[in-house]
Amino acid sequence: MMQNLWKQVAGQYHVSAAEVQAEISAAISQGMCDPDPSVQQAWKEVPSSDEIPNPEEVVAWIAAQLLGAGLLQKADAVSERPEYAVKR
User: Fold this and answer.
1) CA-closest candidate to residue 76, choices 3, 5, 13
2) How many CB atoms lie within 10 A of CB 48?
3) Of 28, 19, 23, which is closest to residue 54 (Cα–Cα)?
């Protein structure tokens, strides 16, 4: 399912799906370097299989947060994974 998302975004910006993933990875790395304690805490809430979450994990976590807040319809959700349901 994520590959379809990357392809869709790539098509909108006339780049490759790999480039979309690379840009998201770079944004994640940059965001995780923010020294603000609240930003650091937010990153700690993202479930990850590694020290740095991958684009799929971040997008799935954001989708779960939007679902939980009622800002995203279930039919629109990228992922519905209970481990990502963090209450803020």
Assistant:
1) 5
2) 14
3) 28
Cβ atoms of 47 and 84 within 8 Å: the answer is yes
What pLDDT digit, counting tens, does each position of 5-59 carry? 999 999 999 999 999 999 999 999 999 999 999 999 999 999 999 999 999 999 9
The pTM score is 0.77
User: pLDDT tens digits for 47-82?
Assistant: 999 999 999 999 999 999 999 998 888 765 544 555
What lies within 8 Å, CB to CB, of 74 at 6+ separation is 67, 80
